[in-house]
Amino acid sequence: MTVRGAIFLGLVICVTAPFAGHANGDENDEGALAASRLVREGKVLPLSVILEKQRTVIGDMILEVEFENEGGHWAYGIYFLGNDGRRHEVYVDAATGELQPGKSED
Fold first, then answer.
1. In the chain, what is the greatest distance between 2 CA atoms, to the nearest angstrom?
2. Any residues with CB less than 8 A from the CB of 34 and at least 6 apart, and which?
3. pTM above 0.85, yes or no
4. What's the CA gap between 86 and 82, in Å, rounded?
5. Are the beta carbons of 7 and 15 closer than 8 angstroms?
6. Quick check: 6 pLDDT over 60?
7. 3-11 — which CB contacts under 8 Å span 24+ positions?
8. DSSP-assigned states of every residue in 85-100
9. Where are the beta strands (DSSP E) in 1-85?
10. Cα–Cα nearest to 89, from 70, 105, 75
11. 37-72 tens-digit pLDDT
12. Nearest in space to 54 (alpha carbons), one of 2, 15, 27
């Protein structure tokens, strides 16, 4: 495994760790449980696929990932450190892996 591959794997583990949390009624846990169930049912893509598909946009410096439902539509909100050194946020359709236009923020 290359150094870049090891770093990416480490980031994926860090980012996906919250999805393996315990169900204690916390909002993050509810999103994690929903994400896990929807991935198993084939209704959304796993986070690892989303990250690989959008690597050219988000790069390797991922800060936080949220799994959100807006009106029955699931999306990953991905916060990352851009090449400009600033924090950015994009929303990615959880079913297709495509960026949601107009939803991204700096």
1. 41
2. 67, 69, 74
3. no
4. 6
5. no
6. no
7. 4/60, 7/60, 8/60, 11/60, 11/61, 11/62
8. S-EEEEEEETTT--B-
9. 62-70, 73-81
10. 105
11. 999 999 999 999 999 999 999 999 999 999 999 888
12. 15
* Average pLDDT of the segment spanning 22-35: 65
- Residue among 91, 85, 86, 93 nearest 103 (CA): 91
Residue 10, token pair as written in the block: 């480490």
Give the separation between CA 84 and CA 47, rounded to whole angstroms. 24
Structure tokens at 25: 């009624």
SS3 state at 76: strand
- Would you state the structure tokens that stand for residue 70, as one six-digit string? 């807006």
Structure tokens at 60: 């390797």
The Cα–Cα gap between 20 and 87 comes to 25
User: Which one-letter amino acid corresponds to residue 32?
Assistant: A
